[in-house]
Structure formats: C-alpha cells, structure tokens
Amino acid sequence: MKKVFILLGIFTSLSIHVLAQVGSTCANPYIIYPATSSSNNCGAQYCGYMQCPTADCSGFVTMSGSSGGLNPACTPDNEITQNVMWMAVTATTTSFTIENKKAYVGSGANNANTKDYVVYSGTCGSLTQIACYTLGGNANATVTGLTAGQVYYIMASPSSLNTTADAISVAITSTVGYTPPGNACASAPALVTNTTYTLTNAGATVNGPICSGSVENNVWYQWCAPSNWPSGQAAYVSVFNQICNSSQGLQLTVWNTNSSCPGSAASPTLVCQNPGSTTQYYYQWTPTANQCYYITIDGYAGTACQYRLTVGSLIVLPIELIRFDAKVLGNSVHLTWATASEINNHYFTLEKSKDGSRFIPLAEVPGAGNSTTLRNYAHEDPFPFSGVNYYRIRQTDMDGQFSYSSIIAVNVKDKGNVFSAWQNTASGSVGVIYFSTESTIGRLRMIDINGRQVYNMDLHMDTGRNDFKIDRKLFSAGVYVIILETEDEVMRTSLSLSDDL
Question: What is the pLDDT of residue 57?
Fold first, then answer.
C-alpha cells in the first residue's frame, strides 16, 4: 500500500441513535495518522480527511462543527460564532506539518482558502493551546515540541479577515509515517480474552497472506486459548465501530497455525470473511486448549479504519454479552451493548451510579427472548451526573431470575445535569425531571423575575427518574427560576415561558 496519511472520517453504526457528525466536536473528531507525504493517486486513498478527486489534493469537505465555547485569542475572529472542524492527530515524532490545501479555485479563491488552525494538547474538556496559525491556500506550518504517541487536537476554522467560507482541504504529514502495532506477523500483539481494544490498520504495509482476495494494508494479532479452556467451548471474534476512510470495510482471517505465522493463503483457517462494507461483525470458532491463533485484519481495497476488536469466550448463559460501552456525546452519555445469543431473555435494566456502589434504574429495554445472532442495543442517558458515571446492565429472564454485567465508567466533565425543566406546549404543562440516587422528599418552588414565589409544592421522589407536571396556565409568560430542594442539595434552573398554550 502506498504510504499516505489516513484520516478515518466515515462512521457507520447499527445502533438506533444517530451519532454526531464526525469532526463536529472535540469528542468526535476526524482521526488522523500522519504519513510522510500527502501526494497520492486518489482512487480509494485519501488526502486530508476527504476523498481526493485529483492528485493535487484539491478535494474538500464542509466544516459544520462547534468550537465548544473556545475562542482562541490568537485568531483574528470569533470561533464561537463560526463553523469549525476538529481533528485528532497521533504524533509519530516530535513534530508534524499542517498542509492547508486549496479547497477553492477561481475568483476569490485566495481569500476563501485562508484558514485558522489552533493546536491543543490534553483531553477534551481540559485542552491546552500549544500552537496557532493562519494559513493561505497551499501554505504549511510545522508544529514542534510534540511527544511521539500522544494525541493532539486541531480546531480548524475560516479566517474571517478574508472570508467565512466553510470548505476546507487539509493534510497532516510528518518526517516519520505512522506504523500501527501488528504491522508484521512476527511482532503480532497478544490479545487478552474478553478485553476490547481500539486498533487501526492505518499506515500498515503488506505482510503475509490473507485467506481471500488481495492484501494491501494488513495487521496481525495473536490470541492463545488458556490451558484450562473447556473442550468444545466456542470463542468469538468481534470487530465493530469501524471508522474508515472509504465506504468499504475490513477483511478478517483467523489462522489455525498455532505459533507459526501463516506461509500462504492455503494455510489452515478457522474464519475467512470478506464482508465488504459491513462495519460490525462477529464470528465463532472452537479453540483447543493451549493453542495459539493468528488474526489478520486487512482493508478491503486498501481501506484504512480505526476499529474495536474483542476475542472472547462463548459460554452458555442466558445472554452472551460481548460488549458494553459508554461514550459522552454533548451533554448526554450514549450507551451501547451487543449480545451474541439470548436464551429466555425478558428485558435489560440499565442502571447508573455516582460512586460505583449504589445504583439506580435508568431505563428498561426489551430483550430478544431467544436469539442466536448478533444483536445490537443502544440507549441515551440525557441526564448524567457531573464527573464519573458508572453503568451496569441487569438482565432478567422470563422466570424472573436476573444477573448483572460488569461495571463500566465514563467521565462527564462539568456537563452533568440531573435536574431539568421545560415548557411542554403539546400538553399545556411545565415538565420537571429529577434523577434521585435514593428515595427522598423535596420541595419544588418557582420564582418570577421580580423575586416573588409563584409556586410551591412538596414532593416525594423515588430512586431513579422522577417526572412532574405543573399546569402551565398557572403562570404568565416570562422568565422564572425553578428551585428543587432535597435533603442533600439545592438545585436551580431557569425557564422562559412563552404565550403558546
């Protein structure tokens, strides 16, 4: 495969929720692994984070994201009011170069192609600015003082000194091209059973065979069945959450060659799949105790992807939960899980906790009853706690017996919200929601703009979600402060009531 830098910018999901546009926020950026040159022959390759229609990288995409409240003083305009593009770059050495390509040609193109680039270290929600550039079309800037292996964030925006044009074409290059772990079979990383990894084949080169089709950018992993692996028990390999640089996907091979790297495509295989554009897949085989297996993943037609990979044990239980993930999206937490099989599965109860010890119910999701195929589930927590949130799944059988999943955690930095109020014009009410960690009593009050109390009600709140409705006709149009007092805390939120009844 020709070594070009890859940005993994097309996200496909089987969940029922629509995720935010890739590149629109720091938490959901285009993911870039630098290469030594941005030139390419197009086709299935990428130049910048868009498919390149010409060899000079004049392809472009439209910036449509948000700065998340950031307005860097180093730029001549206000990024809060502009559309921006977020990128996450994994440094391969102490520097990389931002190449601002030409997104426009013709009259006014010089001004329209001028873009601002602000570079940050740290993590989303805790960013530190380390560089800032305003670049015209075909201008470059090199960011120095970096640490190899660390992820850096770039916020790109129009330079309004010249234009507010949102089209952008950009490449990230480095003197050292990115090489993923497992680029060679001889150095294949060892995978731990029932552990989920975030991996990529971006920057990989041809090494060894695959079982079907041609090999362009394959990577290798090794998994070994432990000595106490029960005879006849199945294992599975799950590849999911692919973020790729084309509409194609990944090819998968599981080799039955024990500790020897496969010598040819004719070597014995247990799984041989070429699923094309399928972005989530799951296959089983029956391992032998103490035997090791090689796993090859290759991009279909040279596609490069970031993906998640799990090799797990398949035991006959009411459900086979093969993954459970949580991701912060804006002010919400997006929860996804998948089962390989279900036996008499009545329903799932999602539970949440502030401390990982005391859990409260979040939502109930129906199960499939009986299933032997991969099933994906998703649910949104619109009111996570500020800070670390813990989640687990309680699975209940048709006969009422239940069991718990392992606990996962996600950090919601300064975005938590367990108390909310709004005007519901359809029902003619003021709606209030409060998530309580325990059964408690409280008082709900409304204060008008002049500081007068216009509503007062004592409440009994159960553990979990509590919904209350107040007749909208009790109040005039205007701005109110709604106060909820419990035994442990006092919470406030503002609400503007319109004349719409």
Answer: 40
Contacts with 136 (C-beta within 8 Å, 6 or more apart), sequence order: 100, 110, 113, 114
Q: Which residue has the higher pLDDT, 383 or 44?
A: 383
Phi and psi dihedrals of 376, rounded to 5? Answer: -110, 140
Using DSSP, state whether 110 is helix, strand or coil.
helix
Residue 108: name the closest of 165, 56, 55 by CA: 165
Residue type, 125: G
- The answer to whether 361 and 369 are in contact (CB under 8 A) is no
Kind plus residue range of the DSSP H or E element containing 109: helix 109-112
Q: Please report, for residues 204, 252, 296, 470, the alpha-carbon distance to residue 215 in angstroms, rounded to integers and kept in the order given.
A: 11, 11, 10, 64
Is residue 172 within 8 Å of 95, Cβ to Cβ?
no
Does 25 or 145 have the greater pLDDT score? 145
pLDDT at 58: 43
Three-state SS string across 187-228, please? HCCECCCCEEEEEECCCCCCCCCCCCCCCCCCEEEEEECCCC
Token pair, residue 65, equals 């994201």
Measured CA to CA, the distance from residue 456 to residue 378 in angstroms comes to 38
This prediction's pTM? 0.57
Domains (range + CATH), the chain: 6-173 (2.60.120), 185-314 (2.60.120.380), 319-412 (2.60.40.10), 419-497 (2.60.40.10)
Apex 391 CA angle, 386 and 396, nearest 5: 150
Residue 16: left (phi > 0), alpha (psi -120 to 50), or beta? Answer: alpha
Between CA 110 and CA 117 the distance in angstroms is: 17
Residues 6+ apart with CB under 8 A from 27: 20, 124, 327, 328, 329
Q: What is the pLDDT of residues 104-132, one digit of tens each?
A: 777 778 888 899 999 999 998 899 999 99
d(CA 379, CA 392): 13
Residues in the chain: 501
- Report whether 17 contacts 380 (CB < 8 A): yes
274-285, pLDDT tens digit by residue?
A: 877 777 788 889
